[in-house]
Amino acid sequence: MKADERAEERRHANTPDSLQLWSRIVSELLSTAGVQQAGLLVHFYSGDLEQETIEPLRKTVRASDFERSLQRIEEDQLLMAAS
């Protein structure tokens, strides 16, 4: 099995999923001294990275609501958690 195929399988695997993983990462970032906000941007590239224009819609939620909000994140949304 090629590395690309293994990577594709991992992307679709039913693991303690990216929602929990990313929520935990953002939570850890917020626990860092001086960090007041952290977040994620979802964007699906359709062309060259250097020429792709992104105009994200920013939404800020309490850190305790981040994982719940992450379940409903939309493309080109910048979801921020505030401590």
User: Helical proportion?
Assistant: 25-40%
Mean pLDDT: 86
Shape assignment: globular
Number of helices in the DSSP assignment: 3
> Low-confidence runs (pLDDT<50, min 5 residues)?
none
The profile of the biggest β sheet is: 3 strands, mixed
H/E element sequence? HHEEHE
What structural class do you assign from the helix and strand content? alpha+beta
Radius of gyration: 15 Å
Task: Kindly state the number of beta strands.
Answer: 3
Distance between the ends: 43 Å
Beta-strand content bin? 15-25%
How are strands sequenced across the largest beta sheet? 1-3-2
Short structural description:
The chain contains three helices and three strands; from the N terminus they run ααββαβ.
